[in-house]
Design brief:
The structure holds three protein chains of three kinds. By secondary structure, chain A is of the alpha/beta class. Among the domains of chain A are: about 250 residues, 3-Layer(aba) Sandwich (Rossmann fold), CATH 3.40.50.10420; about 60 residues, no CATH class. In chain A, about 50% of the residues lie in helices and about 10% in strands. Chain A is built from 24 helices and ten strands. In chain A, the strands form two sheets. A six-stranded parallel sheet of chain A has the order 1-10-7-4-2-3, with helices on both faces. In chain A, strands 8-5-6-9 form a four-stranded mixed sheet, with helices on both faces. In chain A, a hairpin with a 5-residue loop joins strand 5 and strand 6. The longest helix of chain A has 25 residues. Chain B is an alpha/beta fold. In chain B, a hairpin with a 4-residue loop joins strand 5 and strand 6. The longest helix of chain B is centred in the first third of the chain and has 18 residues. Chain B is elongated and about 70 Å long. In chain C, about 45% of the residues lie in helices and about 15% in strands. By secondary structure, chain C is an alpha/beta fold. Chain C is globular and about 50 Å long. Chain C folds into two domains: about 110 residues, no CATH class; about 120 residues, Rossmann fold, CATH 3.40.50. In chain C, helix 11 links the parallel strand 7 and strand 8. The chains are: A alpha/beta, B alpha/beta, C alpha/beta. At the A-C interface, helix 1, helix 2, helix 15, helix 18 and helix 19 of A face helix 1, helix 2, helix 3, helix 4 and helix 9 of C. Strand 9 of chain A pairs antiparallel with strand 9 of chain B, so a sheet runs across the interface.
Chain lengths: ~475, ~220, ~260
């Protein structure tokens, strides 16, 4: 297995090669199904999805381009509803905030619902270090936690695992006897986690959107643990990125019509929850206190510049599902919290200089096929931004994958037609013989899997000349 | 490094100002270029069409919709409860009012009872035909857990409250106090996390039995 | 079509001149594709012109991020085709480079307008047949089962199903579809050199999918894809179908 010589740089090839064929097969099969079900759902139920996604893009971009105004409006609306709003500039501040809120409320046990933002800031470790117990309640995240693993997809965390893997994990951790039946496994998790909802002092969740006009949090989910986590414990902390603001509830129509269909092929997820605030006096349930944490953590790096369109992302995962590179290396191949095409852009840009270097490879690990842009419900031009990141990397002398030819000599060749023609003629005359033994590591690696194209006996140019000379037409 | 609200706002404003100056982002004063795209999929107000579609969507999701007359609701709910051997449910007062009282369920709404209940009897405020969605508006005093903790949901719905499309469901939220939560429920809890196999009743209810009262 | 691409609007009258952009790959290795393109354009009644000083569209350097080098080569390309009223190329990726890549490459540069103008005069060959010529059928005969691999860069061009329609219309030709048409073959130009294992994994997945219907031929709209898949098939065990450009089939179909 090839190791990266550059310390600290994520090496997609090495990670990808290291994944088992079974893992890759699971990811391929799940991805194929999701691509089909997305297409079917849109075709059957959304007659003008092309128009909708462009309008969704425009509305999302408008909020992003006026983010300070909309965040302030959202803050006011939420505060009017009795939600306590906090702003966290970075991972450290966010961790400290959550730990303090929990500590001040005497929290011992936390029920957690799936939140990519909480993964991004490595929240669980900070809470555990502060002496609190954190239990993931999303089935996939629960398994990931038991295995000390990482999710490989932003919507379906364990698509790299099979039922055998989950059965083994549950048996090992005493959740159930070894049983590969998905229903039995799910019921075992349900039984085990039920008591967690009831006994937790605090529920921590993400949020899909915050509506600036009304201050309601919008969450979409299927399993039910998000609703249980946000409404059972006495304290609810919701965290989300600053870019997840939607102007009005009417705008949600566009996004909700596209989100679940893009993500899983469902018309709507089972639970679409609009959380207005903590329990009012007289309410039998709901948290006594509800806090929302608005996280920057590098999002302002993307704001206003050439990558600003990436902030439209609504985390549907459609780009991961369709990406052929994702299918080849699996989500773990990206070595980052956010995998896939959206991760290739977010990972180098969220976080500072260090992330830029560490993830310099990611934007290059793409054939620029454009399938991601094609399926994105908010029409994010991902390939354009991948190429822009490559251009910046070049200018900033970032590390890159070895082996690509130097471009200055090539550009000299390609701007000198005389030399170009001679070079091609020489190639035809000499053939590949000498080149095959060239000590260029990348070329030799490539040769292991590819045969070289044959040099033709007659070039197009000589055919054309002959034709012209013969007066052919 | 400066942190918190002011720092983030300053960071945002700085980034937006710089972006506008460099031509990456449009000027702040430029009005947005929004278009009126049709997000509505269903505009049919024919009551029968709405009921048929609503039922069809839920049946496809694996749940049931019984179309009944108001005079039969008590009997239908009781027959179903007897058939399933339901004994220790929780119920909303409004639902009990419609369906009659029963020893099978109580109005208790403390957490322990909620989580131990074998079923819930609730009254949905609206239904949405486009997607087979039930709408619950949490006015003050209403339980949120009742529609998520008990494993079997008996849901009473007046057919006259069926809305055609999600666009209509969002429109009614204008009249709801922003501090009040709203839950849209489209079928029973499910997951496909393990090998992509769909399993119902992951953490939330495993089954919805909807009693749709056709009173008009 | 990507929202950022230039749309070709230049039209040529019957009998007029159409310039051929051969592409560097065909210039080096695939003269038969250039010949097929000439055959097709002449069949449509156009006079084909070939600028001898053409070299490359600059895509490899652009994709890699070396925009200084890319601009040098792109400027030369702008110069070579300055007088071409209509430019046609048998390559989705080269057409996309001019119509999608050049506007990014020349942003803020003096050549931007000239680049956009060239984009408005550049057609991909199958796009030209479908949208400029308005064809839905192709004459002649060609016996065999063909699976069509539409290359990824078509996403940056105008949508059309001309390739499908024209191939399916040929007498004797049975057109079958791949199961996962949206999946890239893994070539990606410099991508295959920088990420050889990933590229091969993607290529293997693609070849498997394209071969399931037992086709006689896998036809593509880009020789990069053909070169990559041919190179892999040669190293893989078992019988593999012929891999070629769609233009070759259309030209062969015309032969007496």
């Amino acid at each position: 297995m090839k190791q990266s010589k550059r310390v600290g740089v994520v090496d997609v090839e090495a990670i990808g090669i290291g994944k088992s064929e079974s893992s890759r097969a699971s990811v391929r099969s799940a991805s194929e199904k999701k691509v089909v079900s997305r297409a079917m759902a849109l075709e059957a139920e959304v007659e003008n999805s092309a128009d909708l996604r462009l309008e969704a893009a425009a509305r999302r971009q408008h909020v992003i381009d006026h983010l300070d105004e909309y965040l302030l409006a959202a803050e006011k609306s939420m505060t009017d509803n009795g939600i306590q709003v906090h702003w966290a500039a970075d991972q450290e501040e966010a961790q400290q905030l959550v730990v303090k809120l929990c500590h001040d409320a005497g929290v011992k046990r936390i029920a957690k619902s799936k939140s990519m933002v909480s993964e991004e800031i490595h929240l669980n470790g900070a809470l555990e270090a502060a002496g609190m117990e954190v239990v993931e309640t999303d089935l996939g995240e629960f398994v990931v936690q038991l295995d000390n693993d990482h999710p490989s997809h932003i919507v379906t965390p364990i698509i790299h695992k099979s039922r055998k893997d989950v059965a083994a994990t549950f048996a090992r951790e005493g959740i159930s006897e070894y049983n590969e039946d998905p229903e039995a496994l799910t019921m075992a998790a349900r039984r085990h986690l039920r008591s967690v909802f009831m006994s937790a002092d605090c529920g921590i969740t993400g949020a899909n959107f915050i509506v600036a006009e009304t201050g309601r949090l919008v969450t979409v989910s299927n399993e039910g643990n998000l609703r249980l986590t946000s409404n059972t414990p006495r304290l609810h902390i919701a965290m989300t990125g600053i870019e997840k603001i939607v102007a009005t509830e009417a705008d949600l129509a566009l996004l909700l019509k596209l989100l679940a269909r893009s993500a899983t092929g469902q018309s709507l997820t089972v639970y679409t929850q609009f959380l207005g605030g903590p329990r009012a006096s007289g309410d039998p349930d709901g948290p006594d206190a509800m806090h929302v944490i608005l996280l920057d953590n590098g999002r302002t790096n993307l704001l206003g510049g050439r990558y600003r369109e990436m902030l439209r992302c609504i985390r549907c995962g459609a780009c991961l599902n369709v990406c052929p590179v994702y299918r080849a290396v699996t989500g773990h191949g990206y070595g980052s919290v956010y995998p896939g095409p959206m991760g290739a852009i977010f990972s180098p840009l969220l976080g500072g200089e260090e992330s830029r270097r560490k993830y310099a490879y990611l934007p290059k690990a793409s054939s620029l096929c454009g399938a991601c842009e094609e399926v994105c419900p908010v029409a994010i031009p991902i390939p354009k931004m991948l190429v822009a990141l490559r251009e910046e990397s070049m200018r900033m002398h970032m590390p890159g994958p070895g082996g690509t030819p130097p471009w200055a000599p090539w550009s000299m060749l390609a701007t000198s037609p005389g030399i170009w023609k001679v070079a091609l003629e020489s190639g035809r005359a000499i053939g590949w013989g000498p080149a095959r033994i060239a000590p260029v590591a990348a070329f030799q690696r490539w040769l292991q899997h590819h045969d070289l194209p044959a040099w033709p006996r007659q070039s197009f140019r000589s055919w054309w000349k002959k034709r012209d000379a013969e007066g052919d037409s | 490094m400066s942190k918190g609200r002011d720092a983030i706002l300053a960071s945002i404003r700085g980034a937006l100002d710089a972006g506008r100056a460099a031509g990456w982002a449009p000027p702040a004063s430029q009005p947005p270029d929004f278009h009126d795209v049709e997000t509505r999929y269903l505009d049919d107000h024919d009551p029968e069409a709405l009921r048929v579609r609503f039922q069809d969507r839920l049946v496809k999701l694996g749940d049931s919709v019984r179309r009944i007359r108001v005079a039969d609701v008590q009997e239908e709910v009781e027959a179903f409860s007897r058939e399933r051997g339901l004994q220790s449910g929780v119920a909303e007062a409004a639902a009990i009012e419609l369906t009659g009282t029963s020893a099978r369920r109580s109005l208790a709404n403390d957490k322990t009872t909620m989580f131990a209940a074998d079923h819930a009897l609730v009254l949905a405020d609206y239904g949405v035909a486009e997607t087979g969605t039930l709408v619950f508006v949490h006015a003050p005093g209403r339980s949120r857990l009742i529609t998520i903790a008990p494993p079997l949901q008996l849901v009473v719905l007046r057919a006259s409250t069926l809305l055609p499309d999600l666009v209509d469901a969002l429109a009614i939220m204008r009249d709801v106090d922003p501090a009040n939560s709203v839950a849209w429920i489209t079928g029973s809890s499910r997951t496909a996390d393990i090998d992509g196999i769909l399993i119902r009743g992951a953490h939330g209810p495993k089954e919805l039995a909807i009693f749709m009262i056709e009173d008009a | 079509m990507s929202t950022e691409s230039i749309k070709p609007t230049a039209r040529q009258k019957p009998g007029g001149a159409v310039h051929l952009m051969l592409t560097c790959l065909c210039d080096a290795f695939y003269p038969e594709v250039g010949m097929a393109a000439v055959r097709i354009l002449e069949h449509r009644g156009y006079k084909v012109a070939f600028e001898a000083n053409q070299t490359c569209c600059a895509q490899p350097a652009f994709n890699h991020g070396d925009w200084a080098a890319a601009r040098k080569v792109a400027r030369a390309t702008l110069k070579v085709f300055r007088d071409a009223e209509v430019l046609v190329t048998p390559s989705g990726s080269c057409a996309a480079m001019i119509r999608w890549g050049f506007p990014q490459l020349f942003r803020g540069e003096p050549e931007l307008e000239e680049a956009k103008a060239l984009g408005s005069r550049t057609w991909e060959l199958m796009e030209f047949l479908a949208l400029h010529e308005g064809l839905e059928a192709w004459p002649g005969k060609w016996e065999g089962r063909v699976v069509l691999h539409k290359s990824c860069h078509l996403r940056e061009l105008q949508p059309h199903n001309g390739s499908d329609l024209l191939l399916a219309s040929i007498k004797g030709l049975e057109l079958v579809g791949p199961k996962t048409p949206e999946q890239c073959c893994g070539f990606g130009g410099t991508f295959t050199v920088s990420f050889p294992w990933t590229s091969q994994e993607m290529g293997g997945n693609k070849l498997r999918d394209l071969s399931t219907t037992g086709p006689d031929v896998i036809a593509s709209t880009d020789m990069g894809c053909v070169m990559h898949l041919r190179g892999m098939a040669a190293k893989a065990p078992g019988v593999s179908p012929r891999l070629c450009h769609v233009a070759e089939i259309l030209a062969e179909s015309l032969s007496p």
